[in-house]
Design a protein that fits this description.
The chain folds into 5 domains: about 150 residues, P-loop containing nucleotide triphosphate hydrolases (Rossmann fold, 3-Layer(aba) Sandwich), CATH 3.40.50.300; about 210 residues, P-loop containing nucleotide triphosphate hydrolases (Rossmann fold), CATH 3.40.50; about 55 residues, no CATH class; about 55 residues, no CATH class; about 190 residues, no CATH class. It has about 750 residues and is of the alpha/beta class. It has 24 helices and 29 strands. Keywords: ATP-binding, Helicase, Hydrolase, Nucleotide-binding. This is DEAD/DEAH box helicase.
Length: about 750
C-alpha cells in the first residue's frame, strides 16, 4: 500500500487520480487426487514427485482422465494455475507407451520457452522431445525426420509451410496420434481463421485427429470448439483467476495524454525499484510512449510486431536476465514467455476485451509477492463509461474468441498450400468455399485448372511462400535507403505510411517519403529524434458492394450482415503535439491526389429511421455520432480493440460497421449478434455525458477519418432513444434512397 500511496501523491503533478482499487486474492483451485492415485505410469509419478507435485487440482484430474480417454477437450484456467501440467501429464503417459504427440504453440519464442519446462518433467524418463521450426538446423531436422521423438514441438507457421513444401515434414506429422494447441486465446481474428484451415489440412492426413487445447480465461462453448477445430469437444474449467494477490488500480487521467501518464507512472515505479511492463494496442503508440518516458528519466525498450526478430529477442533476454527494468509492448508479450518477474503492469489503454485484460494483468506479481496492475482511463467513451461504473470494469462478461472461418483471403492461402502439397486435386472433392477459392486462384494465375483438376505451378509455390498467418492483407515493406526497417499490413499501412507521415521504429523518427502500392514498398528518411509532433491521416471511406449473408431485426430496425467491399482514400493528414494535454491538431494538410485502396471484408448495415424533426444536417450529425458510439460499444460487448472496427454513415440513415482487416475478423459478427447490448451501452454513453454536444468522452473517435466533424451527441441521443422504443416498422424499406 506504500507504493499505491506514493503513486497517488505523485499523480497530483498531472492532476490525475486513482479512482478505484480492486484487490484480488485468488486462492488455489480445489485439490483432487494424489499423484499416486492417477492412472499413469509409475515412472511419471516419480518424476512429478521429484519436482514437488504430490497432488493435482480437481480440474487437472478431470482433464487428465478425459485426455487419457482420448476425448477432445479445451482446458480454460487462469495464469499460473497449472493448465500446462493438465495436458502434459497424459501426453507424457502416451509418450511412454510409444504414442506420438505434436505440441503447437502460437510463436517460436513460446515454443522454445516451453521446451525447458517439458525437459524438467521428462528428466530420467524414456521420452524424447524435439523442436522443429524455422530456426531448427538442417542436421537437427534430418535427425527428427529419421527418428521422430515422442513429443514434437512446433508452431502453426511451420505446420502451414511444412505440410505444403516438405514431404518429410508431412510424413513426420502423419505419424502423430495427438495434437495439442496451447494458448488458443491468441488465435483471434485472422490467426484463428488460419488455425482452422491448418486443422482441416491436418485432418486430411489423419481423419481421427485427437485435439487437446488450452487457454487463459475466455468465454467459450462447445460450439466455439467445433468452429475452431472442426470437431466436437468438451470444455473443462479450472480457476477463472490467476494465483496470488494483485492490486488492480483504475486511474482517471483527467485529460492528460494517456501515453505521457503511462510513461510518467513507469518512471515512478522504476525509481521505487519495480520492474514494469506497459501494454499498448498500437505499434506506433508503443514507440511514442517509450520516447516520452525518456523525458522522465526512464529508458524503456520496445517489444512489438513489425520490428526485426533479433530486436524482440534481445528485449526478452534483457528482461529475463534482469538487465532491463521496463518495456513498452504491444500484445506480443501477452503470452506466457518467460521474461522473469514483472512487478507491475501498466495498461496505457483499456484492453480490447476482458480476457485480454486478465491475460495482461496476469504478468504482474511473483510468488508470495503482490502484483500491481494500473489501467489508464482517458476521456474516450468507454473509459468514461467505466469511470462512472468502475465495478462493472471487473464484472464484465468473458467474450469468445472472434474469428471468421469463411474469410476467403485465408481460404485461398490454404487451398493453394493444399494443392501444392498434393500437386493435383479434384476440385469437386473440395469444400464449397475451397472450390470458390480455386476459381479466384486460377483467375490470378496462382494455380492451373484442367478438366476439373487443380494443378500446382511455380506461381503456387511463390504465393504460399509469400503468405502469412498473421495477416490477410498485402504487406507493405518499409525501407530507409536500402535497409528494411519494418513492414505494415494493408489497409493499416495506408493510415501509417502516407507521404509526410511520421513513422517511428525502435524509438527513431522517420518521415515517409513515398508509398508505392503497386510495388508494395514505402520509403522513409531519418529525421530528428526530438521531433515534437506526430501525424494522423484524414481519410474517407465508401461502401462499394454489399452481399448479404443474413439479416434480423433489432428494436424493429432492419439489420443485415454480409460481405462488403470498401474503398479507403487518404486525403491528407493532421499534425499533433507529442506533449499536448489535449489531442488537438495544430494543422491540416490535404493531398492533391488522394491515395486509395479497396478491399473486401465483412460487416453489418443498420437502417436507422429519418426522424421528422431532423433536417438533412441533423440526420448526418446523428448518424455519424451513432456510428462512432456503436463502434465504441463494440469494445464492451464484442471485445473489439480500438482499431478492429471501422464505420461509414450516410444521410439516408444507413450506418455501416465493418471489420478493419481484409476478409474479416469475426468481430463485426459478434457486434451484429449482440447489437441490442451495444445500443444499451451507446445510450448510456450519449445520455450521461455532461458535454454541450460532443466531446472525447462520448462521440469523438481518435481514428475518425474527417477529424470528428459533423457530429452531435444530443441528436444521437434522440435517435438512439427513439430506436430503443422498438416502435419502428419491421417492414420499412431497407435500402430506400440507395447507398450503393
Amino acid at each position: 500500500m506504500d507504493i499505491l500511496e506514493n503513486v497517488k501523491e505523485r499523480l497530483n503533478l498531472f492532476n490525475a487520480e486513482i479512482t478505484h482499487i480492486y484487490t484480488e486474492t485468488a486462492f488455489e483451485p480445489d485439490l483432487g487426487s494424489t499423484v499416486d492415485n492417477l492412472n499413469i505410469n509409475e515412472k511419471i509419478k516419480k518424476s512429478l514427485k521429484n519436482i514437488g507435485i504430490e497432488k493435482v487440482y480437481k480440474y487437472q484430474e478431470e482433464a487428465i482422465n478425459k485426455i487419457l480417454d482420448r476425448r477432445n477437450i479445451l482446458i480454460i484456467s487462469g495464469t499460473g494455475t497449472g493448465k500446462t501440467e493438465a495436458f502434459l501429464i497424459p501426453i507424457l503417459n502416451f509418450a511412454i507407451n510409444g504414442e506420438k504427440s505434436i505440441l503447437i504453440y502460437p510463436t517460436k519464442a513460446l515454443a522454445r520457452d516451453q521446451l525447458n519446462r517439458i525437459c524438467k518433467l521428462i528428466k530420467n524418463l524414456p521420452i524424447r522431445v524435439g523442436v522443429i521450426d524455422g530456426d531448427t538446423p538442417r542436421i537437427e531436422r534430418n535427425r527428427i525426420y529419421e527418428d521422430p521423438p515422442e513429443i514434437l514441438i512446433t508452431n502453426p507457421d511451420m505446420l502451414h509451410f511444412g505440410l505444403a513444401m516438405s514431404r518429410r515434414f508431412s510424413e513426420t506429422i502423419r505419424q502423430a496420434d495427438h495434437f495439442v494447441f496451447d494458448e488458443i486465446h491468441v488465435y483471434e481474428g485472422v490467426l484463428g481463421s488460419h488455425l482452422r484451415m491448418i486443422i482441416d489440412r491436418l485432418r486430411d492426413i489423419n481423419n481421427k485427429i485427437h485435439i487437446i487445447s488450452s487457454s487463459a480465461t475466455i468465454g467459450a462453448s462447445p460450439y466455439m470448439f467445433e468452429a475452431m477445430f472442426g470437431e466436437q469437444g468438451e470444455i473443462i474449467y479450472g480457476s477463472s483467476r490467476r494465483k496470488g494477490m494483485a492490486f488492480h488500480v483504475l486511474i482517471n487521467s483527467n485529460g492528460v495524454s494517456r501515453w505521457t501518464l503511462s510513461a510518467y507512472l513507469a518512471a515512478i515505479l522504476i525509481k521505487l525499484g519495480l520492474k514494469i511492463l506497459i501494454f499498448t494496442d498500437s505499434q506506433q503508440m508503443a514507440e511514442v510512449t517509450a520516447k516520452i518516458a525518456q523525458r522522465f528519466g526512464a529508458d524503456l525498450e520496445v517489444h512489438r510486431a513489425g520490428i526485426l526478430p533479433e530486436e524482440r529477442l534481445k528485449v526478452e533476454q534483457g528482461l529475463r536476465q534482469g538487465k532491463i527494468n521496463g518495456v513498452v509492448a504491444t500484445p506480443t508479450l501477452e503470452l506466457g514467455i518467460d521474461i522473469g518477474n514483472i512487478d507491475a503492469v501498466i495498461m496505457a489503454e483499456n484492453p480490447p476485451s476482458y480476457p485480454k485484460y486478465l491475460q495482461r494483468a496476469g504478468r504482474a506479481g511473483r510468488r508470495n509477492v503482490a502484483g500491481y496492475v494500473f489501467t489508464i482511463l482517458s476521456d474516450d467513451p468507454i473509459d468514461s463509461y467505466f469511470l462512472r461504473k468502475p465495478k462493472e470494469f471487473f464484472a464484465r462478461k468473458l467474450t469468445p474468441i472472434p474469428f471468421d472461418t469463411s474469410n476467403i483471403e485465408v481460404v485461398k492461402v490454404h487451398t493453394a498450400a493444399y494443392i501444392l502439397e498434393k500437386y493435383m486435386v479434384k476440385i469437386k472433392e473440395l469444400p464449397n468455399l475451397w472450390q470458390k477459392a480455386c476459381k479466384e486462384l486460377e483467375k490470378n494465375n496462382v494455380i492451373r485448372i484442367v478438366n476439373g483438376i487443380a494443378y500446382a505451378t511455380k506461381e503456387t509455390r511463390k504465393f504460399v511462400l509469400e503468405s502469412s498467418l498473421r495477416s490477410s492483407g498485402p504487406i507493405v515493406k518499409i525501407y530507409n535507403d536500402d535497409k528494411k526497417i519494418g513492414e505494415r499490413e494493408l489497409p493499416i499501412a495506408l493510415y501509417d505510411l502516407y507521404p509526410n507521415a511520421v513513422y517511428i521504429a525502435s524509438k527513431r523518427n522517420y518521415i515517409v517519403d513515398n508509398l508505392d502500392l503497386k510495388k508494395m514498398i514505402a520509403t522513409v528518411k531519418k529525421t530528428s529524434d526530438n521531433l515534437p509532433y506526430y501525424t494522423k491521416p484524414l481519410y474517407s471511406v465508401d461502401l462499394k458492394e454489399f452481399n448479404e449473408i443474413e439479416n434480423r431485426n433489432v428494436f424493429g430496425l432492419p439489420v443485415k450482415y454480409g460481405e462488403v467491399m470498401v474503398k479507403v482514400s487518404v486525403e491528407g493528414y493532421t499534425v499533433h503535439d507529442f506533449y499536448s494535454k489535449k489531442d488537438k491538431s495544430s494543422a491540416e494538410f490535404k493531398f492533391e491526389n488522394p491515395i486509395s485502396y479497396s478491399y473486401r471484408t465483412k460487416g453489418l448495415i443498420i437502417k436507422h429511421p429519418i426522424l421528422d424533426e431532423f433536417t438533412l444536417m441533423d440526420g448526418m450529425e446523428a448518424y455519424h455520432a451513432t456510428e462512432h458510439v456503436l463502434i465504441s460499444a463494440g469494445r464492451v460487448v464484442a471485445g473489439a480493440s480500438l482499431t478492429d472496427l471501422s464505420g461509414i454513415s450516410y444521410p439516408s440513415g444507413h450506418v455501416v460497421i465493418y471489420d478493419s482487416i481484409v476478409g474479416g475478423s469475426g468481430v463485426s459478427k459478434l457486434l451484429y449478434d449482440r447489437l441490442e447490448d451495444a445500443y444499451e451501452v451507446a445510450l448510456d454513453i450519449v445520455g450521461k455525458c455532461d458535454c454541450e454536444d460532443g466531446c472525447p468522452k462520448c462521440i469523438y473517435d481518435p481514428y475518425c477519418g474527417n477529424n470528428n466533424k459533423v457530429l452531435s451527441r444530443r441528436k444521437s441521443l434522440r435517435l438512439i432513444s427513439e430506436v430503443m422504443k422498438g416502435t419502428r416498422s419491421k417492414d420499412e424499406e431497407f435500402w430506400g434512397e440507395s447507398i450503393r
